[in-house]
Amino acid sequence: MTDRHHSDPEVPRPEGPYPPTEAMLSEPVPEALQAEQRRQLAAAWDAPKGWRYWTAVNNSEVGVWYALTAFFFMLCAGVMALMIRVQLAVPENDLISADLFNQLFTMHGSGMMFLFAVPMFEAISILMLPGLLGARDMPFPRLSAYGFWCFVIGGVFVLGAILFNAAPKAGWFMYPPLATEEEGVGSDIWLLGLSFIEVASIAAAVELIVGTLKCRPPGMRVNTMPLYAWYVMVVGGMILFAFPPLIAGDFLFELQRSFDWPFFDPARGGDPMLWQHLFWIFGHPEVYIVFLPSIAIAAMVVPTVAQRPIFGYSWIVLSAVGTGFISFGLWVHHMFTTGLPALSLGFFSAASEAVVIPTGIQLFCFVATLIAGRVKMTPPMLWIAGALAVFTTGGLTGVMVAVAPFDFQAHDGYFIVAHLHYVLFGGMVFPVIGGIYYFFPFIAKKQLSARLSRWSFWLIFSGTNICYFPMHLTGLTGMPRRIYTYPDGLGWGWLNMISTLGAFAIAAGFLVFAYDLLRPKGGQGQVARNPWNAGTLEWTHDIPEAKWGVRSIPFVRSRYPLWDEPKLVERMDAGRYYLPDSPEQKRETLITSVIDARPIQVQEVTGPTWVTLWAAGFTGGAFIFPTFHWYGPAMVSAAFAVVTILYWLWTSTARPPRHEMREAGLGLRLPTYASGPAAVGWWAVWITMLGDATGFASVVFGFFFYWTASDFPPAGSPLAAGWPAAGAALAYLASWGLTLGARMLNRGERSGAAMACLALAPLLAVLGAGALILSVLHLEPASHVYPAILWAIMVWCVTHTIPGVIMQLYCLAGILFGKLRPRHDADLWNSTLFWHFLLLTALVSAAVIGLAPRLL
Amino acid sequence: MARLTALLLPLLLLLAGCSGRQSALGPGGADAQVLAVLFFVMLGGAVVLWLFMNGLFYWATRRSPSAHSEKGSFLLIVIGGILFPTVVLAALLSYGLAILPDQRAPGDGLTVAVRGEQWWWRVEYWPEGAEAPIRTANEIRLPVGARTEFRLDSHRVIHSFWVPALGGKMDMFPGRETRMSLEPVRPGLYRGQCAEFCGESHAWMAFEVEAMEPAAFDAWLAHEASDARPPEGAEAQRGAALFAAQGCGACHAVRGTEAVGQVGPDLTHVGSRHSLGAGRLGMAQEDLMRWIRDPAAFKPGAEMPAYDHLSEAQLSDLATYLRGLQ
Amino acid sequence: MTDDATDDAPRHQEEQKAFAEEADSLLAITIAPLIWCAHFLVCYCGVAIYCAKWQQAFSLGVLRAGLIGATVLALAGIALIGWFAFRRWDVRTSGDWVHERGISEDRHRFLGHAAFLLALISFIAVCYVTLPLIFIGSCA
């Protein structure tokens, strides 16, 4: 860590007793005070009414919208699957044209992965995580809302394309050259629309990681976190490293489609394999990004059902972390038939088998918990049991296809279709539905029907097996994937007919489930507060619903506080714990330390606003207009997006507080402002930039990939100008130094000097960007992949300079208008952190552009 | 391995009987046999493990806990979760790695170069030492008992070359050559198909593979190298004239005639092939007529234009001529 | 609840101290898998670059021997991490397999336990990734 606080005696720090003693906790709270506290909290957390309802940012609202939207997109993609199945039911069917069929399977895959599986994880996590952690809300509610609106806009745009017969049709994997050569806007819709959604996914991942690390209740150390939180942390981390390679791939791909820079065109030195690498470096971890959160749901349901703590908590943590790592070593098993050296295939085959071990451990931990407990079969448990039966089938066929030679037969055939659907139904659909049955009383304060659950379970369970089991045989008897029809006489007809019937059984099951989910439940009366007798904090929720999340934030000392501390709920309700009130009627939550969750700050969180909707709309425009080559409107839209986001940040984040300290309850006084590593915003920037650096690394990887794959740089090709590249490096270094200097000077109460630095720094940054452009300006990017990749690195770096400059000017304005003061300098800390990464990007860019081709 | 094969062979033959000629479970090639055995071994293991895992789960949800539960549970995780899978997976991985190099074995002499087109196959035979290839399209014949090497690439987009009954698949890239080899062990007619999604008519990019006894193969190859047979009979001669007049030769080559086009499939011996349009139709008179009248009706997106301005009689003449190109 | 009151009290510069703890605990659990990552990348990149560029320069046997050497180093590193973690876990003296209490000692042991298990998995995974080096001897 380069960023450390200097010993600054003026920085306020927590004061008062901690941890609370039993005597403090057993002291009653006067009734009148309780009533006043409840009134204050209700006023602070009240949800907006009427048409302003859509300005809400509470996790309890946004999470529900998010989940329902993802569910709706799933139904759309499911209808596409039914159309596919109808077309394939009999040989030589001409019901659906080849062109439409190709759009359908492309959108079915893309929709299920990008618009359902990952967003559903984010939705459920946004909805549940604050409850599981006894927190009021996520740390950045407006960011959740922004992410949600981006998701809606992007999802409708991408999925809606099929209504205009303009959807992408090159498969969800979008392999070039097929996808680069495809005429029409289909490929652009996929690239830009889904990049937009990926950005939203990363935003959600950042928020979930920070939420897990910094918003736990006091006393909830890493060894007592609910397992779901562990999984959220691992999956958030995986999103951070898995999505950026795809975004980098999209970036190169769209540059080829828009400007004919030949990254994937072999005639000009490009290589379609680079896309396959970048896509699957994303694509395989993606499977685990989908699978792990669902296992996390099972890890919450199983102990409740067994009525005992989970067996092998450490083992499950090991599995989650281990799977997270190893899943990044599997990507080439999607490329076993591309003619890579057998030795390379062997490494990925080995890692693909190794990842089975942590996955298996999780299942054995569940079984062990059930053996050691007294099991009560509840509707959620039925779904988890079904998940196990279905998932083990998919897991075992996964072990088979990980054996490279067998994959030579199975790859791109229906055996794989069977395998992946078994994995995704068992590893995602069943546990998620189980989770919805389990958490529904928390989410909606109503119960779903046990009878309808059984109906939908048996329909979906039998449908899954009827539909997908025969596909193993269909595939081994030679049927390839993604064919819109097939001739008679190859023995595939009856198998496909059975699969189609199964698909309709699944659809019927989903109809029953959707009915159960959406039917009016007004007559049901009040549900029990903890209907499954679970041990985790979400079941301390208020019934009827209160928008404040938790009445007071508890002090926790075990993994299952509801089982271990009988007085917990009573004390929470009485407001005996932390933050029981909100004297200024502000929305606040408690920030605790990473490892041991010691309380360190009271953080004000943002409330309802239209600004997130506007920002999402303009960001959407910036992504969507280029699809149609409307670059002017796209620029304008991007500029508006920047202005909106700046307004949002300026008006609601990191403002100097009215009071430095706040009574947090139980005698504890906590600071209300933090900057640097103590602030959640700083963590968010740090985590975001980690993902951003991964994206940049992927582009640089492209450069070295071309170097291994061919004669690169081609003999006799002109080099980038060396001196401008070196000058760019120096200018960026100077701009970074001034930014860092401004932060230190500002801390030292020398605001004038800090402002001078912040005025000079953007000039140097622009100078650096200009020099970088100059270094490659004489190269012709459309001529060959070598100049093209240098241009791409330059574009990446220059594009990142824009927010860098905006941040410097933002801080300058902050000092000028008194928003940023010597001790209230969070913005400056965050900008400096951004600049650390920007400097790294600039130095690497300058080295790769100016130096590497001279050395290779 | 040999004993295992002997053990499983009856089962394989049974499946071969009920599965089609595009089946990986009805192997007619050495590689496919090895992979089929591999599959059945893994299938057996998978069935046992599935029953064990789900049986255990079912039992765990039905029993009531006893004093030994904790310790037993711990042992279950250590043995079932770590020890057992580590050993089993290492064995399976070694098995797979051991057979991997053979799947890429070099050929015995004959090389076949196949280029993927949208949506058909350009085929060139390069016998050992040959200086010029023997060109054909959309059908591959191979000698039984010898390993033939394939050099694969593609014209525009990625395809994948797959004859399930003979062996695994290999992708075909524009601008980069990939290699594989096949060794048929049973004479017969098999079917191959493109396995990588390659655009609108991906579904109709197939081909017939005939595995022949070596002597028959050599005779066939010698004949395939010869020029096209001149048209016999009035109908065929009218068809040949029509072929020239309609400009078919701009795209198609018929060696020994003025037709030298390289855009579409070589038609020198098209009449001797088992299928038309890359596995789309048969080679009957009616098939040829339907195809020429409107190829896109059978293969959406096909580049060959429709010849629906020709009369039935003209189409019939053309078909007769082409069928005669034995 | 007062057993470790001093240990739990909010401290000056809480975040810096938490970071310091993290350095030897939360991050420590990822070291073994990171060694696996590094070993995997060295093997994969080594073979990819060798087969694309250096086949004429030296024989594959040399590369295989070098990579197996890397395996030995990686396994030694992981074993060392595992040993430290095992001592931190301290299961033999404490007899505690669960570490479920909300006290520093349990958190400490839990992180040791998790790091030990991750070292175990990483060890197995490195062994697996070495198997192809033993079985396959060509770039084909």
The radius of gyration computed from the alpha-carbon positions of chain B, rounded to a whole number of angstroms, is 26 Å
Second rung of CATH, namely the architecture of the largest domain in chain B: Sandwich
Put simply, the count of helices of chain B is 8
What strand line-up does the widest sheet of chain B have? Answer: 3-2-1-5-8
Overall geometry of chain B: elongated
User: Which stretches of chain B are poorly predicted, pLDDT < 50 over at least 5 residues?
Assistant: none
Count of structural domains of chain A = 2
The fraction of residues assigned to DSSP E strands of chain B is 15-25%
Q: What's the overall average pLDDT of chain A, rounded?
A: 93
Query: What is the total domain count of chain B?
Result: 3
SSE class of chain A:
mainly alpha
Helical content band of chain A? 55-70%
Q: Characterize the quaternary organization of these chains.
A: heterotrimer
Strand tally of chain A? 4
Q: From the coordinates shown, what is the CATH architecture of the largest domain in chain A?
A: Up-down Bundle
Terminal Cα span of chain A: 33 Å
The helicity of chain B comes to: 40-55%
Round the Cα radius of gyration of chain A to an integer and report it.
27 Å
Keywords (chain A): Cell membrane, Copper, Electron transport, Heme, Iron, Membrane, Metal-binding, Respiratory chain, Translocase, Transmembrane, Transmembrane helix, Transport
Pathway (chain A): Energy metabolism; oxidative phosphorylation
GO cellular component, one term (chain A): plasma membrane
EC number (chain A): 7.1.1.9
